[in-house]
């Protein structure tokens, strides 16, 4: 499980990949979280917000890796266009329902993500996605 999870906006994959070693915090708009598996989470969020099957999305290569270093464990991956669009159009009620679903799914796996915290994470991420899309940017995740 990742210790540091930062979602951030970047103009393209190349710009996002350049942040692999340093992380995005000082370079661009970002959100910092911790102690959940972000690769698994973005697939779960896509299932909850846009529909789909977890295994099919994972087999299709979601989330798409942009840069990675096996020796130091840092990764940068992109949120799918489908997930970004779902975040951008989501109403607060949609985000609350997705947060409840995510919290329940994690509890079944033995992970505790409180519903209120899940709501904050999804709400903040929806705001970041909306801001990024207005600028023509994508949203990425850096983990360390």
From TrEMBL:
Taxonomic superkingdom: Bacteria
Designated name of the protein: DUF1877 family protein
Species in which this protein is naturally found: Streptomyces argenteolus
């Amino acid at each position: 499980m990742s210790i540091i999870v930062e979602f951030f906006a970047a103009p393209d994959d190349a710009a996002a990949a350049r942040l692999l070693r340093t992380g995005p915090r000082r370079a661009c708009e970002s959100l910092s979280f911790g102690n959940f598996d972000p690769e698994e989470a973005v697939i779960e969020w896509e299932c909850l917000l846009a529909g789909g099957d977890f295994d099919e999305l994972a087999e299709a290569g979601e989330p798409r890796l942009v840069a990675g270093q096996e020796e130091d464990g840092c990764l940068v991956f992109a949120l799918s266009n489908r997930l970004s669009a779902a975040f951008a159009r989501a109403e607060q009620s949609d985000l609350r329902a997705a947060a409840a679903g995510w919290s329940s799914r994690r509890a079944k796996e033995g992970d505790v993500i409180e519903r209120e915290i899940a709501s904050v994470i999804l709400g903040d991420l929806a705001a970041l996605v909306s801001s990024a899309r207005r600028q023509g940017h994508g949203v990425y995740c850096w983990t360390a």
